[in-house]
Amino acid sequence: MFMKTLITGVAGFLGSHLLKTLLEQGKYVIGLDNLSTGRMQNIETVSHHPNFEFLRFDVSDPAVLQLDLLMDVTEIYHLASPASPKFYQHEPFATISVNTIGTQHMLELARMNNAKLLYASTSEAYGDPVMHPQPEEYCGNVNTWGPRACYDEAKRLGEVLCYEYFQRFGVQVKVARIFNTYSAGLRNDDGRVISNFVTQALTGADITVYGDGKQTRSFCYVDDNIRALQLMMDRQEATGEIINIGNPSEYQILEVAVMVKHMCESRSTITFHPLPQDDPKMRRPVIEKAKSLLDWQPQVNLEEGLRRTIKAYRGQMIERVQS
């Protein structure tokens, strides 16, 4: 059977990485993106690939279910959504919409086509956790009345929609709770920790640490993440499951800032600023389910991932200066 893969949010960070991987594997891919936070430059190297078609479209628009090109898709990676606090707090209603209405549209498309669907959820579903590390069974500690709620709660409701379509209609749903992912593909104005630190260190700007820097995160290099998403899509054992995807190695934010400064040979000063509201104090995934169901675990440690990221960011900066 001819396989046709749909990626929503294809011009975003994860979507563009996944697209290039699938094309290298010989798959035919349709990409949807409304370009609210995604950028065409992320996919320009493959924009004319014979196995790729791009549609500028919002998955929250009900007309998405009338697009002829999508009528025979066999698998759907639903990655569309702002993912950085900087962007989702600027567009809270669009963030809620893409993760609820847009998710239901993609689930309905999967039901119509008897297609598999992977929903990109988030570790933010755990909120500011009181259980550490976080297994999939933990229900979380999320504040519905705050600036992060538009993302956290919308993603959680997206999971509920996945549950209902799996239980009621037998849609082959897989839910990935994605922990902090990074690489040079992140926009340097993205506002997330790694992109901030590397950009600041390379330009000599102050490296901004929020709070006392003792809060922790677990950083997963993008190649490991993409490999996990593909395994989830391919493995029948992942159907109807929520699976943490992340690196269980845990670092304090200040520790990462010092590491980046050293690796960049930067003279930047590390400065401290007030911690944003509802910013999680701890974040580390339990990945036993990913190990057992997917035979997956991360292969790239933080030092190696940072080395690759710094090299690429530095190269991009040199190109901009020369152009």
Automatic annotation (TrEMBL):
Please list the cofactors this protein needs. NAD(+)
Top EC category: lyase
| NAD in keyword set | yes
Places the protein is found: Golgi apparatus, Golgi stack membrane
Q: What keywords sit in the KW lines? A: Decarboxylase, Glycoprotein, Golgi apparatus, Lyase, Membrane, NAD, Signal-anchor, Transmembrane, Transmembrane helix
Per the UniProt entry, what is one GO biological process?
D-xylose metabolic process
Q: What is its EC number?
A: 4.1.1.35
Question: Superkingdom of the source?
Answer: Bacteria
> What's the chief localization of this chain?
Golgi
Its record classes its membrane topology as:
Single-pass type II membrane protein
Question: Which Gene Ontology molecular function entries are recorded, alphabetically?
Answer: NAD+ binding; UDP-glucuronate decarboxylase activity
Gene Ontology cellular component list: cytoplasm
Q: What is this protein called?
A: UDP-glucuronate decarboxylase
